[in-house]
Structure formats: C-alpha cells, structure tokens
Write a structure and sequence with these properties.
This protein is mainly β. The model is unreliable at 1-28 and 297-319 (pLDDT under 50). The longest helix is centred in the C-terminal third of the chain and has 7 residues, at 298-304. It is built from two helices and 26 strands. The chain has a domain at 205-319: 7 Propeller (Methylamine Dehydrogenase, Chain H), CATH 2.130.10. The protein has helices spanning 11-14, 298-304; strands spanning 42-47, 52-57, 61-66, 71-77, 83-88, 94-99, 103-108, 117-120, 126-131, 137-142, 146-151, 156-162, 168-173, 179-184, 189-193, 198-202, 210-215, 221-226, 228-229, 232-233, 236-240, 246-251, 258-263, 273-278, 283-287, 293-294. It starts with 10 loop residues before the first helix and ends in a 15-residue tail after the last helix. Strands 1-2-3-4 form a four-stranded antiparallel β-sheet, with no helix packed on it.
C-alpha cells in the first residue's frame, strides 16, 4: 500500500470538474498557498484547537501549524523514522505521535520541544493511537499484532494482548465508554473491553483490508474504510455498534483505496454526514443515512472542519 504523493499542479488542473460535473468557478479565488510545514510527505494530520492543526511526516517531525495564519508554531523532533499517526487530547495541549521507529512519544505544546513521555514496547510500526475519555489511558496498536494499554502518567504498559494476524491499521475509543474499536489488515474489525482487555466482538470480515475507522460522537455508529483498486473495494461502511456486526449502509464511489473516514461535526438538527478520502485524490461527503454523495467546496470544509486527515493520502496542505 503505497502513499499517493501529491504533485504541484495548476489550480485549474487540480480542481477541474469531472465530465458531467459543473465546475465551481468560485473556488479558485478562495485558495491560499502556505509555506511547507514538512520537508517530505505528510502522513497524518489532526486538530489541536480550532486554529491549530498537528501533522506528522516522513521527515520524522511533528509540526503544530496555525492554519488560519499560515505559519508554523512548533516543530518537535524526537522520532528516528517517519511519523505514522498523531493524536491530540481534546481540551488540552497534549500531542501523541506514533512512528515506524516502534515508539509513541508524548509532547506538550506548553512544555518545550522535548517529549515529556515515551511509550516503548512494540516490535513493529505503530499505526493505532487512542486516548480514554478521561485522559488517563493510552491505547496503541501495531503491525506486530499487539494491542497495548498504557498509563499515561507513568508510561507503564498495564495490559497487552496478541491476536494472530491482527496487523492493526487504526484504533478509536468509543466516546463515554470502556470500549475500543480497531481495524486490521486481516480485513476484520474488533471491539475491545479496556477493563478486561479482551475482544468482546468481531465483525464479519470484509473483502478488503480495513484501513481506518471512526466512531460517531454519540457512540452508536462506526464507519470503516477499505482498500481496493479500480473501483473494487474502495468503499466505506457504516456499522451499528449497538448491534455489533450489523452493517447499515455502504458508501461507494471512490476508484482507489479509501484511506480515511470520519463523522463530520453536525449542527443541531442538521443531517449527519460522513467524509472519506481516497488514493484517487478525492474527498467525498456522504449523507449518513441515504449514502448519497454530497458536493461541498473543499475550502469550506478545511475552514469549518480542521480535521487534517484530508491530507493523509499525501496532500501537503490547502494550496
């Protein structure tokens, strides 16, 4: 599974409407180009605050970037291989970064440029990070088949479990619960009980590798994305966590691997929407219930939703 490397192109080429689609003639005038945050490709981005996003790249750096002002605020150097995932704890200045160097580092934006905690114990690249709702525990998952639970304050591994062929691709903590959901290269989705540290549910295996997952804010639904090629696979799937393994709907339309998926923030009374990004270079927004693909200007999404996973397929920022 290679990354889709972004190449600089003219805006008219990059955002040209596909055949049969009406071009958005207002979009180009809104585009801003920022100075590069990294010296290589960006692998992962998330939001620290409404103004700040955090990214990790192949240059081994973790960067805090003010996306409204278009300037770098902080660059953390501590990993010796590329960064695979970054995660922030809501309402704090904590940042966690996972890497191909098999470690997870914890940073604090207000405590200098050195890591304040290091979590060591995995034998291969760490791809999954999740923080418990109260901010005391960290869950990590790796291609080494291990799922680990750590005490954040002491950096001590409290629980470990190895599941055969469970090459972890992503991890999510279910809001307001003790459950953790993880996707894997064995095409399976597993639900863990963080108290007993056991798998409580295993969803029916999909046809393709599950690349990413996200849980709805109310904890009722899970969305997962699949790899694929030529339009085969490449879908996202909505599951009902109240009926584990119950598939609600599938979102189809990408032509290559669906690399990421997430629930978008919804205004009170507004429709619940799901977003997906793909190695085909597109971002799609879906109505959760009807699976209809909706059309939104990308810039307004970047402005209103600072979830930087849009860049995880290799795009380096809002050009």
């Amino acid at each position: 599974m290679g990354k889709l490397q972004s190449k600089f192109r003219k805006r008219s080429d990059l955002y040209r409407a596909s055949k049969g689609e009406k071009a958005d003639t207002t979009f180009d005038s809104q585009v801003m180009q920022y100075e590069p945050a990294h010296q290589g490709s960006i692998n992962t981005v998330t939001n620290l605050s409404p103004d700040l996003c955090v990214s990790g790249g192949s240059d081994q750096a973790v960067v805090v970037y003010d996306w409204k002002q278009g300037r770098m605020c902080q660059s953390f150097q501590g990993h010796n291989r590329e960064v695979t995932k970054v995660l922030c704890y809501a309402g704090s200045t904590w940042i966690f970064s996972a890497s191909r160097d098999k470690t997870v580092l914890m940073w604090d934006l207000n405590q200098g440029d050195e890591p304040i905690q290091e979590f060591c114990g995995h034998e291969l690249v760490v791809n999954g990070l999740a923080i418990s709702p109260e901010g005391r525990k960290l869950c990590t998952g790796s291609r080494d088949n291990w799922m680990c639970l750590w005490d954040i304050e002491s950096a001590k591994c409290e629980q470990r479990q190895n599941v055969s062929r469970n090459l972890v691709t992503h991890v999510c903590w279910v809001p307001g619960s003790s459950s953790i959901v993880q996707t894997s290269e064995d095409k399976t989705i597993r639900v863990w009980d963080s108290r007993a540290w056991q798998v409580t549910n295993t969803f029916p295996a999909k046809q393709y590798i599950q690349t990413h997952c996200d849980v709805s804010p109310n904890g009722n639904y899970l969305v997962s994305s699949s790899n694929g090629f030529g339009g085969q696979g490449c879908e996202a799937t909505l599951w009902d966590l109240r009926q584990p393994g119950c598939k609600v709907v599938e979102y189809r339309g990408h032509l290559q691997t669906a690399a990421c998926c997430m629930f978008l923030p919804t205004p009170p009374g507004g429709p619940v929407q799901v977003a997906t990004s793909s190695h085909d270079g597109s971002v799609k927004i879906w109505d959760q219930n009807t699976a209809a693909s909706l059309h939104h200007p990308l810039f307004s999404l970047f402005r209103d939703v600072v979830s930087g996973w849009f860049w995880s397929t290799g795009l380096s920022g809002p050009h």
